[in-house]
Amino acid sequence: MRRRLAPLAVLAASVALLAAPAAQAAPAHKPAIKACSTAATSLAVDKVRRPVNHLLLTLTNDGKRPCYAYGAPTVVFDDEPAVTGILEDSVPQAVVTLEPGESAYAAIGLSSPGGPRGRTVHHLSSWLANRKLQAVGDPATLALPRPTHVDDSAYVTYWQSTPNLALTW
User: Fold this and answer.
1) Which one is predicted more confidently, 127 or 26?
2) What is the pLDDT of residue 10?
3) Residues with Cβ within 8 Å of residue 165, at least 6 apart in sequence
4) How far is it, in rounded angstroms, from Cα 54 to Cα 155?
5) Each residue of 107-137: b (16+ CB within 10 Å) or e?
């Protein structure tokens, strides 16, 4: 009487040998993705044709690793004591992940028709947020297109993955 266990044992040993190199080749630990910082990114602000009274803030990952664009940028015009309000309705479905060379976008609504207490501004300062949505690091200071007029109804959106998504608000 012959036993048929030997071919199964050989097959099991072969599978184990084939799987072993693959397990060894897998990376031990992927570096964690961190929040985008002004040290590894660049910010730009541009006037847009539509919608009127809007600017587009662009955050580009200049680093060598991906980063998360958490929340919304903190925006202050000139040297005003108050930050610009965040448009809560613009929360994206997910945090925007920026691979090296990719960008995230936030719209800045400048004023509403007949808005209160309008003024001309010349630059803005912007901070990025950490996972807890707190402004961190050094601000980026950007010159604004001339003339830029804001009023107390100004707002900024959360970071979006495309300019069109940012400018829908």
Assistant:
1) 127
2) 41
3) 92, 105
4) 10
5) bbbbbeeeeeeeeebeebbbbbbbeeeebee
Residues written for the chain = 169
Supply 95's token pair. Answer: 């945090």
Task: Give the residue from 131, 163, 134, 160 showing the smallest Cα distance to 48.
Answer: 163
CA 22, 25, 26, 32: dihedral to nearest 10 degrees? 180
Per-residue pLDDT band for 145 (boundaries 50, 70, 90) equals very high
What would the two tokens of residue 78 be?
């000139």
- At 137 the three-state DSSP class reads strand
Both tokens of 61, joined, read: 């990952």
User: How far, in Å, CA of 10 to CA of 19, rounded?
Assistant: 14
Give the count of beta carbons closer than 10 Å to the beta carbon of residue 8: 10
Task: Determine how β-strand 96-98 pairs with β-strand 41-47.
Answer: unpaired
| Amino acid letter, residue 23 | A
- Chain mean position to CA 116: 31
Q: Quote the CA–CA distance of 2 and 153 in Å, as a whole number.
A: 87
C-alpha 51: how far from chain center: 22
